[in-house]
Predict the structure.
Amino acid sequence: MILLDSNNKRLIFEGEDKSGKTTLSYLLYEYMIKKYKGRPIYYSSEPINDKNSIQDSSRKIIRDMIKYNKNISEETRNCLFFLDREILYNTMNKFKFPYIFISDRSFLSNLCIQNAFEVNTFENLFHQNIDLIKRYNIPTNVIFYIKRDKSLYDLENSNDDVLKKNLLHHRKKINEMYEKLLGKKELLNHDIFINTKIFTINNNGPIAETLSKILSYF
C-alpha cells in the first residue's frame, strides 16, 4: 500500500520504450489531480517526451538539442540528460509542500541505456546520479516498473528509424539492466533507496486494466 501522507512523494514510471509508461504516468497524474484537489501535484518527463512536462527555457534548449540533432553522440546525450535532470531537481526544490510528483522516467532509464551503449561504466553513471539526488534531497518513494511483451513488436513497426537502430540492437542489455535493478530489486541494496517501493506492472492488456492495477496500490 502506498501512503500519500503529509510528506513529499515522488512516483516514478520506468521501463523500456513503448511499454506504456508515458501513457500510464500521465493517466495517474490526471487521476491524482481530481482525487487530491488542493494538494500540489506535478508531472514531468525526460526532455524527449516533453508534451506535458515541467518546462523552462533551459530545458527547452536541451530538449531541442536532443530531439532535432540526429547525429548527437551518446556521450553528449548522456551529458544533456544529466544537465536536464539537475535543472529539474532544482525546480523541484521550489515546489509547494507537501507535493506529489509523478515522473515519466528517471535517471534509471538513462543508466540502463547508457550502460548498454557502454558510454560509461555502470558505477560511474550510478554514483554521478546518486550524488545529484543527495545534493538536492530528492525523494524516490515509489517506482512502477512497466513491462509489456509486445514492446519489441511496436519498436519494429515504429516509423522512427533512429529509435529502431539505437534501441533494438541494445534492447537485450537494456532489459537485463532493468531486470537487475527493478525486477530483482537490486536497487534496494543501496542505502538511498532502502525505503523505496518497487512494483512490477505487466501492461499486456487494455490500458484501463493496467491503470486499475496501479490504482489498487493506493
About this structure: Strands lie at 9-14, 41-45, 100-104, 142-147, 197-202. The first strand starts at residue 9 and ends at 14. The chain is about 50% helix and 15% strand. Residues 9-215 form a domain with the Rossmann fold fold (CATH 3.40.50.300).
